[in-house]
């Protein structure tokens, strides 16, 4: 009986230490002196100020919206998609990010999937960061009246 109590006691003492170990690992070994949670991602507010002004909007129906924030260091490969950390249906509210379009959950045969369709996985094929730069080639394209920004 004593033995069991000893084992339980040892567990009770070591569990919080174990939990702390796991936590510190998640932040790459960083620990806050004030014992606050150490954020490993930039805050959404920061991202909003990060760019060339507010989102530029769309020039034609079905245009993939331009990205109004920096995409440096965001990993998108077969192992991870860091865009989904903020833009997935599940996480978007938390980050104040736009939810990815429902169209992104349909495969090319129009079937509704439970997760992002494989043909939408590599976001940067269609979405590019916005830039108020001089066009490399002259372009006389005019958006339809209903999409014009006045
Ligand atoms: C840390 C969170 C975060 C990550 C990671 C992130 N975004 Fe965003 N994204 C945001 C927020 C917040 C906004 C809204 C900014 C605004 O409204 O000014 C946004 C806006 C956008 C928009 C514009 C949507 C619209 O309707 O105008 C696109 C497109 C976009 N992001 C694509 C991406 C892509 C592609 C990646 C990965 C390369 C990515 N984002 C990674 C937070 C994030
Ligand atoms: C094959 C091209 C393509 C790929 C790949 C793609 N998108 Fe899109 N995306 C679009 C188009 C086109 C629209 C606008 C039309 C629509 O809503 O379907 C859009 C819309 C969006 C919007 C705006 C939704 C809204 O309600 O305003 C967000 C945010 C977004 N995409 C994020 C992403 C993220 C994150 C990824 C990667 C996981 C991604 N997209 C991959 C083409 C693409």
Automatic annotation (TrEMBL):
Q: Which Gene3D superfamilies match?
A: Flavocytochrome C3, Chain A (1.10.1130.10)
Cite the entry's keywords alphabetically. Electron transport, Heme, Iron, Metal-binding, Periplasm, Signal, Transport
Query: Signal peptide position in this chain?
Result: 1-19
- Description of post-translational modifications: Binds 2 heme C groups per subunit.
Predominant place of localization: periplasm
Residue positions binding heme c 2: 104, 123, 126-127
Q: What are this entry's molecular-function GO terms?
A: metal ion binding
GO BP annotations of the record are:
anaerobic respiration
Q: Which is an annotated Pfam family here?
A: NapB
Subcellular compartments: Periplasm
Q: Which residues form a coiled coil?
A: none
> So where does heme c 1 get bound?
69, 83, 86-87
Q: Does the keyword S-adenosyl-L-methionine apply?
A: no
* Any one Gene Ontology cellular component term annotated for this protein: periplasmic space
Q: Subunit comment for this entry?
A: Component of the periplasmic nitrate reductase NapAB complex composed of NapA and NapB.
Q: What does this protein do?
A: Electron transfer subunit of the periplasmic nitrate reductase complex NapAB. Receives electrons from the membrane-anchored tetraheme c-type NapC protein and transfers these to NapA subunit, thus allowing electron flow between membrane and periplasm. Essential for periplasmic nitrate reduction with nitrate as the terminal electron acceptor.
Family per record? Belongs to the NapB family.
What is this protein identified as? Periplasmic nitrate reductase, electron transfer subunit
Its source organism is Endozoicomonas numazuensis
């Amino acid at each position: 009986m004593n033995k069991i109590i000893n084992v339980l006691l040892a567990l009770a003492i070591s569990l919080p230490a174990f939990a702390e170990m796991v936590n510190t690992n998640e932040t790459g070994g960083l620990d806050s002196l004030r014992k606050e949670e150490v954020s490993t991602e930039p805050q959404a507010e920061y991202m909003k100020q990060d760019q060339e002004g507010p989102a530029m909007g769309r020039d034609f129906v079905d245009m993939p919206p331009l990205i109004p924030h920096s995409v440096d260091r965001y990993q998108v490969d077969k192992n991870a998609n860091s865009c989904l950390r903020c833009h997935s249906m599940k996480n978007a509210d938390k980050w104040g990010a736009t939810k990815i379009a429902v169209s992104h959950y349909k495969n090319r045969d129009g079937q509704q999937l439970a997760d992002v369709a494989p043909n939408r996985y590599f976001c940067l094929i269609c979405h590019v960061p916005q830039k108020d730069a001089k066009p490399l080639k002259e372009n006389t394209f005019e958006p339809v009246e209903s999409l014009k920004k006045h």
